[in-house]
Amino acid sequence: MRRWIPAARAERGEPKRSGRRSRAGDSGSEMSLDTVEAENAALRELEEERDILRKAARYFAGETRW
Question: 27 by DSSP, 3-state: which?
């Protein structure tokens, strides 16, 4: 996991992160509006995929007759 996450971020063109998290008020922690919008879009897509998988799991669980 430690190698996969930085590799995935590099593929997406995200900047490297340090090991420490910064507080919202710290200098240099402001994100550009484009970055925030891109992350929100990715989050919406992941939430949609999660909802689809939940519905599919519910559907298939209902069809199982052991």
Answer: coil
37: left (phi over 0), alpha (psi -120 to 50) or beta: alpha
- Per the confidence metrics, is the pTM higher than 0.70? no
Q: Decide if 37 contacts 47 (C-beta within 8 A).
A: no
- Residue of 1 and 29 predicted with greater confidence: 1
Q: How far apart are CA 58 and CA 39, in angstroms?
A: 28
Report the amino acid identity of residue 23. Answer: R
Rounded distance between C-alpha atoms, residue 31 and residue 36, angstroms: 7
Task: For residue 38, count CB atoms less than 10 angstroms from its CB and return exposed for 0-12, middle for 13-18, buried for 19 or more.
Answer: middle
What is the spatial distance between Cα 49 and Cα 54, in angstroms, rounded to a whole number? 9
The pLDDT tens digits of the residues spanning 43-62 come to 999 999 999 999 999 998 88
